[in-house]
């Protein structure tokens, strides 16, 4: 077998539907400082997809994990260098600390060169949609699941991730592609799915309350879109298990992309009109409907 035949997929030219220059890129839950951080894959994405503006939407550096062991491996250091290089070359970087890098919240309001640290942001898309951007841990209190269960989930998550690591090391030896054990388990758990649904609803409620068109966040490591009552919910995923980001193209459309910049899913372009505040003649009011 020649070297070119055995070349990994990463060296192949990007597919025609992969994104290149984008207006905005949203990334969260990188968890730098942990062995599960997929820094090399994220660095590959940043070589391929060039954003004008980059939102780092929380849990970028896992300061909680680094309390035990403060080490960034080579790939992780290279990723930090790449992000700083991006900022120096004119990309506007907005760092929104999450619950694993909450200590950085003390730096909110600070702006160093092209990097600003903010608690949350309002992003206006190219098509004029206004989106609330936050990590999302603030919605944990809206989730009606016992706090001890959330805590246990966090511990369990760490355990499952280490199983995941071993499982994929073994799969790698046999030439099998990456497969997420953790997300397979989560898809089968009713409690996990209930948590995700309640989280999404709380985020959309907040965006609606602030008169915005939608929400962008991370935190729950479950990427995807949802639209309810004209409010768009976007989750950019994570760089521990799924390796996805949210990208806004030049026209203002939002896409979920993988580490190669390939589009996995596109957000609904036309949101349903929000219910009008004043009743129209043929509108059914809650009283009329007997609610
Ligand atoms: Mn988080």
From TrEMBL:
EC number, as in UniProt: 3.6.1.54
Output one GO MF annotation: hydrolase activity
User: Which source organism?
Assistant: Cobetia amphilecti
Q: Which UniProt keywords are listed? A: Cell inner membrane, Cell membrane, Hydrolase, Manganese, Membrane, Metal-binding
Q: Which residues form the Calcineurin-like phosphoesterase domain?
A: 23-222
This protein's name: UDP-2,3-diacylglucosamine diphosphatase
Q: What SUPFAM superfamilies does this protein map onto?
A: Metallo-dependent phosphatases
**Which residue ranges does the record annotate as region Disordered?**
272-291
**InterPro entries in the record:** Calcineurin-like_PHP, LpxH-like, Metallo-depent_PP-like
Matches recorded under PANTHER family: BLL8164 PROTEIN (PTHR34990:SF2), UDP-2,3-DIACYLGLUCOSAMINE HYDROLASE-RELATED (PTHR34990)
Asked if the keyword Lipid biosynthesis belongs to this entry, the reply reads: no
Q: Name one Pfam family in it.
A: Metallophos
* Comp. bias (Low complexity): 277-291
